[in-house]
Amino acid sequence: MTQPILNQASNYDAKNSYTFTFTYLGAEHTTTNTLSIREDGSGTKPVYEKDQVSLDKNHILPATTLNNGTAYLAKVRVKLKDGYSEWSPEIKFTCYTTPRILFDTIDQHQFIYTNDVLMSAIYTQAQNEPVTSYQYTLYDQRHVALVKYPIRKPERNSPTRFSERVSNIKKGKLYYIGLKVVTEHGIIYEQLQEFTAQYITPSVSGIIQPTMNKDDGQIVVDLFLKQLLGTSARAYIPKRKNDNADNYTYWKDDYVFVPKENPLIYTKLAMAKASDWIGKFWVMNVQNGLFLDFSPAEDRGQHIKFYKHDDYITCEKEFGQIKSRTRSNVIKDLKLRPFYMFVYVKEYRVEIKIVPDQTFKDDDWNEELSREELSQYGEITKETQQMIDAAEAKINAARQRLQQIHDEHWQQYITKVEQAISDARARILGQNELRDRVMEIDDQYWDYFENTEMINYWKELAKAERESEAKYEIYRTEYEQRINDTLSEIKSGAMTLDDGRLKLTQYSLVYSFILREVIDFNDTKLTLDGLQELYNDYLQKYK
Predict the structure, then answer these.
(1) Cα–Cα distances in Å, from 56 out to 22, 33, 465, 478, 536?
(2) pLDDT in tens for each of the 543 residues of the chain?
(3) InterPro entries from the xrefs (predicted)?
(4) For residues 312 and 328, is the Cβ–Cβ distance under 8 A?
């Protein structure tokens, strides 16, 4: 009788299932095998011994059958026509808990703040399984390996902390850093962590300064290297529970709306204290008044405040009773249009220059167009919130009226059924008559519920929603016009279908902050006819 051979099993985590494979070269076909597992030791009894049917030569051990930190012996046999084969020789394996790797260089928001970072990670494992080698790999956003760093051995004085210098990280690009470890008993484990680099300048940059020597007819070229050591600008949101990006509204995935009541604050910029610095800011749709404030920590010390006016910017600094005010150049009818603001501080003296951004898409120095851009602002103002509250009140009132009507008919239904039961007890109705009577009452009620009450319910709600959204009509008309204009551009060939669908999706996203319902253009399979059909259905609904 041919004996099966159980292939060597790798050490694995007992919380997971595991597939044991074996080799059997016997002439008789078999589909059933028995796997027997016992703890490593003399005379131990099996902790698992079961038959399993499989067309392949394997046996799947369910998760949590064994315990981590324990060594086991396993053997297998196959079922033949007249009995079982002999047991295979036993193999030894051990169950280990899956290691954990913590990348402590990457913060909780998955950011790093320089383009040259010493990536560091801490390794832990429940059974203290030592690592014999490790290797870092840098992946792009599609998990394609960009750089495979050398295989290294842990240092003796820090056997659970592994480091690698990662350079040339591009700002704003999504990466994954992977760390693969190999342990003493053959565990191979890799963990990936995503991150994005956010920094103001590269960690090392150069400045070339030519100086002319008139006396000797020479030009002296000085090269200065500037290095950032990791101190970086970090933002936080003081009036929210966390600093997550979803505390703000975004437009076109490029612009963030920062309302006055929910400011975004950067710390450790050192601008309020520094005597010399340069800043460049891009701004759009800023109302008149204070819009930028550089202040020391906890508001202690001097502020540098920037105020927006119709045609210019002013900067104010105070020291005791003395107030210093600087004005920028004047740009006629600047108002809400996008512009660049350049700030140059030399020995604490502030100079400001503003330049309109005429390259901004859809901005052609048309004030009305800027107002349209402002109308897309997603912040829910107090006035808008009051409109929404009034709408909700109307809808809730409609629901309450409908609930009262429903309760009245339900009570009539209960009364009729109870009366039929009373008639049966008084022997006015027989058993079959009671059954027929209850079925008749039941059919009447459900016919009313499905064909009258439910139809009226949705009609009343739709009516209440239309009434509550009467104040939104100007926004809906504006939204519908933008959709129609975009569809016309697609039809004429002035815009591709993909670009048009993207623009339609962006419009729906912006107006979803104002309107109760917008059109969903997210389906990439939609043709021009499909987009037009969605638009026509929307027009018909709000006709």
Answers:
(1) 9, 10, 61, 65, 57
(2) 578 999 999 999 999 999 999 999 888 888 899 999 999 999 899 999 999 998 889 999 999 999 999 999 999 999 998 889 999 999 999 999 999 999 988 877 788 877 888 899 999 998 999 999 999 999 998 899 999 999 999 988 889 999 999 998 888 789 999 999 999 988 999 999 999 887 655 555 566 777 777 777 788 777 765 555 444 455 667 777 776 666 666 655 556 767 666 777 776 665 555 667 788 888 877 878 888 888 776 666 678 889 998 899 999 887 777 788 899 999 988 877 888 899 888 767 888 999 888 765 544 444 444 444 445 444 434 555 565 566 667 667 766 777 788 788 788 888 888 888 888 888 788 878 888 888 888 888 777 777 777 777 666 666 666 665 555 677 788 888 889 989 999 999 888 998 888 888 878 877 776 676 788 887 778 899 999 999 998 888 876
(3) Ig-like_fold
(4) yes
- 269-368: CATH topology is Jelly Rolls (2.60.120)
The answer to whether the beta carbons of residues 30 and 13 sit under 8 Å apart is no
Amino acid occupying residue 495: M
Contact 483, 504 (CB under 8 A): yes
Report how far residue 204's alpha carbon sits from residue 196's, in angstroms, rounded to the nearest whole number.
18
Verdict on whether the full-model pTM lies above 0.70: no
Backbone angles phi, psi at 51, to 5 degrees: -85, 150
Based on the number of CB atoms within 10 Å of its own CB, is 284 exposed (0-12), middle (13-18) or buried (19 or more)?
middle
Distance CA 21, CA 23 (A): 7
Q: How many CA atoms lie within 13 A of 411 on its CB side?
A: 6
In a 13 Å sphere around the CA of 514, the CA atoms on its Cβ side amount to: 22
User: Does domain 100-197 bear CATH number 3.40.50.620?
Assistant: no
Alpha-carbon torsion, ordered 366, 370, 376, 377, to 10 deg? 180
